Amino acid sequence: MSLAPSSAETIIREQAARWAARLNDIDITEAEREELQRWLLADVRHANEFRAHNAMIVLARDLPPDLRNRLSAFAPSSSYAGAPETSGARSIWKPVVTTS
User: Fold this and answer.
1) From CA 11, how far away is CA 17, in angstroms rounded?
2) CA dihedral defined by 32, 35, 40, 42, rounded to 10 degrees?
3) Nearest CA to 52 among 95, 93, 94, 90?
4) Which of 11, 19, 36, 46 is most exposed, with the fewest beta carbons within 10 Å of its own?
């Protein structure tokens, strides 16, 4: 039995990370919020992963600034398949990619 996540799980995890980061951007639009809502309702796995990523963001905000800066090197790129487009928007915080 393999413990590696399936490609669908990986895509959902990556999309959730991008959505969690985008939700915390200062310039998220109402249309993007509606798109996020549709994405969350499309599959219970979306909401579960999204909650997990939001929890990580909350925890990361409490990290010392120097550690946050070092961890930002591991932030996901904007090239995730199916990730929300940010059109050059700047994120307040970059999520940390976790490995399974």
Assistant:
1) 10
2) -170
3) 95
4) 11
Place of tokens 């490995």: 99
pLDDT per residue as tens digits for the range 31-49:
999 999 999 999 999 999 9
**pLDDT single digits (tens) 69-91:** 888 787 655 544 444 444 444 44
CB contact set of 77 (below 8 Å; sequence gap of 6+)? none
* In contact, 84 and 19? CB cutoff 8 Å: yes
DSSP calls for the chain:
---SPPHHHHHHHHHHHHHHHHHTSTT--HHHHHHHHHHHHH-HHHHHHHHHHHHHHHHHHTS-HHHHHHHGGGPPPTT-TTPPP-TTPPPSSPPPPP--
Q: What is the pLDDT of residue 79?
A: 46
